[in-house]
Amino acid sequence: MSLHDVEAKINAVVQKKPELSGQVAAKLEEILHDLENLSVEEGEKTGLDKLKHGFEKFKKDVYHKKTELTSKLRTGQWPKYMIVACADSRVSPDAIFQLSPGDAFIVRNVANMVPTYDAEKQGAPSIGSAVEYAVLHLKVDHIVVVGHRACGGIGALIKMTPDDGEYKTTFIENWCQIGKPARATLREKHGKDADADSLCKYCEKESVNNSLKNLLSYPFVVDAVKEGKISLHGGYYDHVEGSFEKHLWQCLEQMT
Description:
Elements: H1 3-16, H2 21-36, H3 40-43, H4 49-63, H5 67-73, E1 81-86, H6 93-96, E2 104-109, H7 125-138, E3 142-148, H8 152-159, H9 172-176, H10 180-190, H11 196-215, H12 219-226, E4 231-238, E5 243-248, H13 251-254
Parallel strand pairs: 1-2, 1-3, 3-4
Antiparallel strand pairs: 4-5
Helix pairs in contact: 1-2, 10-11
């Protein structure tokens, strides 16, 4: 039985005895607060209890309280944003931007990379299908690519041998090679003069630009940009400093 179910049962009893409503409501609020804030050590018996408690809180505080929103979302979705972000557990667009359900169409992968358009429909159809759906069907107003500090995927990209010889991983390096143009720009501008942390930051930000450029290899993205229906943006989240850098990418200039 969920916390919401318990609350509903108690409220049903209180309705039969209105004179108790004030005292019961205060005590109920106190009990629910204590239950919702149980730590993993104090209250969880299985690894999925955190998810269970989280859903119960979502159902109580969002689903049942924001009825106008949940009713609207039953019939469809109309997000204004498509966000491409890293799968890193520290980089949650919903939390960083305080998004509500329905606000954004979010795609997450290793190192927030967007591959170039593949006319032969090979390569990485997961990203291509998401971009196509967001632009042509959801008709989002903005595509935002979000990079972040201490990205493991970018770290793997930097460490890959110059000749990209035999890979040490089954999937990671093959995927991260999408960012090779960003790595080339990094080496051209900074060589090996900068310290490792700075080099990684440079490449993390340049990789965002690389993904934005790759978006412009998709014909339907180019058409939407030229028609003024969509704009492309890049951003960089620093979870260490708690900062976010945003810039509007001048994509029209890149197409001329």
